[in-house]
């Protein structure tokens, strides 16, 4: 008695097809409609991390990581599923059309794997970027060595948001939006007012720690709230400040400042920035490292 099972489809072929052409592995095993559905699901899931980064309002970094995991999990599952489907397939259960290699060949030729890959790369490049913090101008929100996501602007920036923008062809700054076109900004002794109202703040502490800049030995720390965004800012406790006044922000411009108010080059120095120079909104830190190594406590943290 012969117990050998006649398997007309090879699991390793199904897995290899699924690896390079999601869904085609199932077409190879005779599951055409299921394979098409798998292909569409995998291609759609690739956009899930970007959509998550754009719409999440809290725990952005964690949500993006979960979205990446879901996308990769679906991709890996369809490879295993295709191999298993081939393993369980027998000559008696295989559909007649699937005995021919041409449906699989046609699917491979018609599946725009390369085009989709290029398109996805272009889509991500056009909508999501990452940058590394080089200076202390946004301390304590960002510190040197922080790497963060920037979701590119699809609309006007709002006061309180962190915006990355181009100063010139070589330099990209990230600062906090304080006012937009039409707002009146006034600065007196370092205190910022918008449309006649000082930005609400409360004192938190004075710290003598010098973790990132020896030239700034003592900080006054405040918590500010602008619109619905709450964040911390620091002032050099011994810096000399002169009263200054700025007028109305021009249309299609943003007035931006650093959270490290006495050690930041921003709109107080180079004026408001054109909105067309803004790259996008900084949303979350995904990695951070310094001279002592990885800063584990800063990984996957949202930016206020």
Word description of this protein:
The chain has 304 residues and is an alpha+beta fold. It contains 8 helices and 16 strands. Strands 1, 2, 3, 4, 12, 13, 14, 15 and 16 form a 9-stranded antiparallel sheet that branches. Helix 1 (11-20) packs antiparallel against helix 5 (60-88), helix 3 packs antiparallel against helix 5 (60-88) and helix 4 (48-55) packs antiparallel against helix 5 (60-88). The model is unreliable at 1-5 (pLDDT under 50).
Count of beta strands: 16
| Overall 3D shape | elongated
Tally of individual helices: 8
Which class of secondary structure composition applies to the elements? Answer: alpha+beta
Tell me the CATH superfamily of the largest domain: Umud Fragment, subunit A
**What top-tier CATH class of the largest domain fits best?**
Mainly Beta
Kindly estimate the percentage of residues that lie in beta strands according to DSSP: 25-35%
Radius of gyration: 27 Å
CATH topology of the largest domain: Umud Fragment, subunit A
Mean of the pLDDT scores? 79
Distance between the termini: 72 Å
Residue share in helix:
25-40%
CATH architecture of the largest domain: Ribbon
**Overall number of structural domains:** 2
Unreliable stretches covering 5 or more consecutive residues: 1-5
In sequence order, what are the helices and strands, one letter per element? HHHHHHHEEEEEEEEEEEEHEEEE
Main sheet overview: 9 strands, antiparallel
């Amino acid at each position: 008695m012969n117990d050998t099972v006649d398997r007309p489809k090879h699991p390793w072929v199904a897995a290899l097809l699924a690896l390079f052409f999601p869904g085609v592995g199932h077409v190879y095993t005779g599951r055409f409609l299921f394979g098409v559905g798998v292909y569409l699901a995998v291609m759609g899931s690739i956009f899930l991390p970007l959509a998550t980064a754009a719409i999440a309002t809290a725990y952005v970094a964690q949500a993006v990581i979960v979205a990446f995991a879901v996308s990769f999990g679906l991709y890996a599952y369809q490879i295993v599923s295709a191999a298993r489907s081939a393993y369980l397939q027998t000559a008696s259960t295989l559909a007649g059309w699937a005995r021919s290699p041409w449906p699989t060949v046609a699917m491979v030729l018609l599946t725009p794997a390369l085009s989709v890959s290029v398109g996805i790369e272009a889509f991500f490049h056009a909508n999501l970027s990452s940058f590394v913090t080089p200076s202390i101008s946004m301390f304590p929100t960002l510190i040197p060595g922080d790497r963060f996501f920037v979701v590119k602007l699809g609309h006007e920036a709002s006061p309180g948001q962190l915006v990355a923008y181009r100063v010139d062809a070589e330099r990209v700054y990230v600062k906090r939006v304080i006012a937009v076109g039409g707002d009146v900004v006034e600065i007196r002794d370092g205190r910022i007012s918008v449309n006649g109202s000082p930005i609400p703040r409360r004192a938190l502490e004075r710290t003598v720690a010098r973790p990132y800049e020896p030239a700034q030995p003592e900080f006054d720390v405040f918590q500010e709230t602008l619109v619905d965004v709450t964040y911390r800012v620091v002032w050099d406790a011994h810096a000399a400040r002169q009263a200054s006044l700025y007028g109305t922000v021009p249309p299609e411009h943003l007035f931006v400042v650093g959270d490290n108010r006495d050690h930041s080059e921003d709109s107080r120095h180079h004026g408001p920035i054109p909105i067309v120079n803004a790259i996008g909104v900084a949303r979350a830190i995904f990695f951070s490292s310094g001279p002592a190594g990885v800063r584990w406590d800063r990984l996957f943290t949202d930016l206020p």
